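Work package 3, deliverable 3.1, input record:
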Amino acid sequence: MPETMAPRPATPAPTLNDVAEAAGVSLATASRVLNGSARKVAESYRVRVADAAARLGYTANLSAQATARGTSGIIALLVGDIADPYFGQIAAGVARGADEQGLVVTIAVTERDAAREQRIIHALRGQRPRGMILAASRAEESQRPEWRAELDAIAGVGTQVVMLGPQAEGVRVVTIDNRGGARALGAALAAHGYRSAVILAAAEGVRTSDDRVAGFTEGFAAAGGSVERVLRGELSRESGERLAADALADGVAAGTVVFGISDVIAIGAMAAIRAAGRVIGTDIAVTGFDDIPTCTDLTPPLSSVRVPLEQIGYQTLRAATADDWDPDDTTFDLDVVLRDSTPARTS
Amino acid sequence: MPETMAPRPATPAPTLNDVAEAAGVSLATASRVLNGSARKVAESYRVRVADAAARLGYTANLSAQATARGTSGIIALLVGDIADPYFGQIAAGVARGADEQGLVVTIAVTERDAAREQRIIHALRGQRPRGMILAASRAEESQRPEWRAELDAIAGVGTQVVMLGPQAEGVRVVTIDNRGGARALGAALAAHGYRSAVILAAAEGVRTSDDRVAGFTEGFAAAGGSVERVLRGELSRESGERLAADALADGVAAGTVVFGISDVIAIGAMAAIRAAGRVIGTDIAVTGFDDIPTCTDLTPPLSSVRVPLEQIGYQTLRAATADDWDPDDTTFDLDVVLRDSTPARTS
DNA sequence: CACACTCAGGAAAGCGCTTTCCCGCACATG
DNA sequence: CATGTGCGGGAAAGCGCTTTCCTGAGTGTG
């Protein structure tokens, strides 16, 4: 082992024992002073210990603390892709909540792959985390037996599991009313005079996508519109671009609205539409979903449905840590935000 | 404590002891089989243990393992704001590298605040992480004595610190050649016929910002351009918008190029310019830095300097874990990408 | 056949904490 | 003055692992 740089100083980290000795008290007392205990310690001892700790630059060894206590201050967060602004915002909310409670968050990337997710969950169980937040799970997963077994095992170590998404047995759930939001979006567009729509979605079985497709269809149809086609791909910009190109190749009538079930998909679609020489808005309208910050910077600005992701992340953390938990608190309502990418049709 | 949902099953997590008993071997043997040891174990024992572990759904308690070993498999990552695509991409690279090596990454948000950062570092030291990646530190920090003391203490617990940014004593460093990239950008714009520039930067002392300002100025001036003004704010869209509005209020000549030292700043500037009724590109040109994915989706597409953030994140992780470490591997060169927001001037 | 030697399991001593007990002290009570 | 009762410090027993020893069995040698 070369050990090229940063030769470890011979100063090992001070232990609680060191602090106790320096303060001239017992280990037990030092522990009580420094790491919140119910028992009182005389003021005189308290200061001596606190001083010694400060002087030595003591920091409790969290691992040791966790083994002794049998529980850690860790929140495990599983996201599909941390570079995606969708998950980034959620992570920001989770991080804020965790910070408030003095918890640490470990993050893992599932790449939206179920097998990978399960492996990660199994590995993370070893941390004995206080809570585990599943932000990228599919609906069907929660039915599979191995999955159930893993979840039970997790509950066994005292970890509270929270899923962001659809109802599921035995875990707390924070739901986004994707269906309702999409319904409102469909209705709003119909009210704007649109009668024909093409939907660009993710694969069937991705619950978020399915809900948005269903909701939009309901709302749009109820107000007299009709969904011509639903094309399925992935939750990515590239997929949106490809699907939109396919649709355009098959012919898309002027006055149609293209609904990308997430903003990144819609953004890809905009690129494809432009590349095909069509005009976004007056010719082909486009709307997304999520209302990521980029929406307002596009030309034309992209219509969307605002999803308060940071808030959601925060609530999800709360759900993981709160002793009492009222599921009613945690359905988020969404606002439709129409912009110039879906101008009112005055025909 | 209401304990509303998910009543903990009475099944506590199986311990290594349970596995050993189930397999009819000693604790030591079980440990050697399951958690990589140099010592050999007879095949017959090996299978019995492995079977028992699988049957019981055993997962090693990482905290206990860490206390016993005196070192953990944790990488602590400090970012300014995880919702910012800049940090999001870096985090993705770090996560990928960590996953490859079976490490876990804990993430903390400094909000770009030095005091907060220091608090977090102190707290995270308790984890005894294998490595700590500082992605949002300022240059001056590394000089302050408390800072040095904290860093020494961290090294004392065996944590390898890696800073993303300027050179610093005693820690490994991964550098982005901001100055060089910006110089190239300035030169390229001058070559495109621009002669006058306004720079929108972050506060003085933010090293990344300072380097980009300096580099751009060098490159632009060397080729005959002149930087009219440098306005300072923060690294955010809002700041970019505000600064650009200020500049416009003071008057900006047609043919000037506005350089936002990060893409988000440039994007804010684009909004302000448009709001002022000016045309981006032909009238006032705009360029950013970082080349976040959004750049190509803007209208006009935003010129920028490509910074391979995911790669950089990956390399910082390597820097944190590699035994041998060659600092030369880790200066990243940047590519200028000119798009329609800075058309060639044909005057 | 006595005598080093390996080899691999198991007992047990940690790792740095928390927490249960025990115990001596000071004060209150009859 | 004997007894009861809090109170709070300290000894020590864990927590679930790793790792150092110790030990007995199996080899090879002269």
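Residues 1-9 of chain A have pLDDT under 50 and may be disordered.
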